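Chapter review: from sequence to fold.
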Amino acid sequence: MKIGNIDLGNRPIMLAPMEDVTDPSFRLICKEQGADMVYTEFVSADALIRNINSTTRKLFIDPAERPAAIQIYGKEVEPMVEAAKIAEAAQPDVLDINFGCPVKKVASKGAGSGMLRNVPLLLEITRAIVDAVKIPVTVKTRLGWDCENKIIVELAEQLQDCGIKALTIHGRTRSQMYNGEADWTLIGEVKRNPRMTIPIIGNGDITSPEKLVEYFDRYGVDGIMVGRASIGAPWIFREMKHYMATGEHLAIPAAEKMALLRRQISESIDRIDEYRGILHIRRHLAASPLFKGIPNFRSTRIAMLQAGTRAELEAILDHVEATMLA
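The token string follows.
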């Protein structure tokens, strides 16, 4: 599969863009674990052109994590074009436009998936960005605004006509948020449309190596994007790659998984500071499947998620690891 001239190989697996998750450290770890392409957190066009520090920092890409995409969102043509040019100057491999974020503070203002209620403007923004930058432009979106307006089959053709180089589709409408099961039926229909020539990437509920292979086979997509299943489990890409190649499950030792989580903690603290770095990493610790099945773990989990210093958190993890390896 190629995005422009970027060759991602056969059946690539991508790390989905996720706010407060896909920071540089996590992206690099996922890349090392087998992700074929990674995406930054969402970058607000309005904040980017106002040079907000917390936003401009999101443009940093480590050479070791490439190929990498910067994803921007907004609701007006001129700010989005200006933001696209600023993002391009940071030298990502791909510029992705977010027309899929469902959270209220984004969608209710007309950005993200809110653009699905104004398709003419969505297409105008896409066209303008494609014309304004030289790097490949891609789009990530949803099936439609709600169940009565699943417009993705027609919209995919229109976006392709705008000049985008790949399209990622999350198998839910905006009204579904992240509830219920992702419906890949229309993703498959887009892929089977003879008019579509650009790569189609599927997204939504890919939680295991088996499901990854099943959905590649069933829906014929060119690539698959993995999001929430990677939180607290960056090794999932390694497991998926091994299963795709061999049909067998890869048994990664618990000590290796723990080492990756400890690295995330350390790098999060070093990148921000101790207090905020620990707050940032709690989402990964809370979601990690590494701790599932440990007997009487509830009180330890609470302590782990309430730890306020590196030393306190490391001591808890030392205890957990000793329990796991006993």
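Two observations follow directly from the output. Strands lie at 2-3, 6-7, 13-15, 37-44, 68-73, 94-99, 137-142, 166-170, 200-203, 223-226. The chain has a mean pLDDT of 96.
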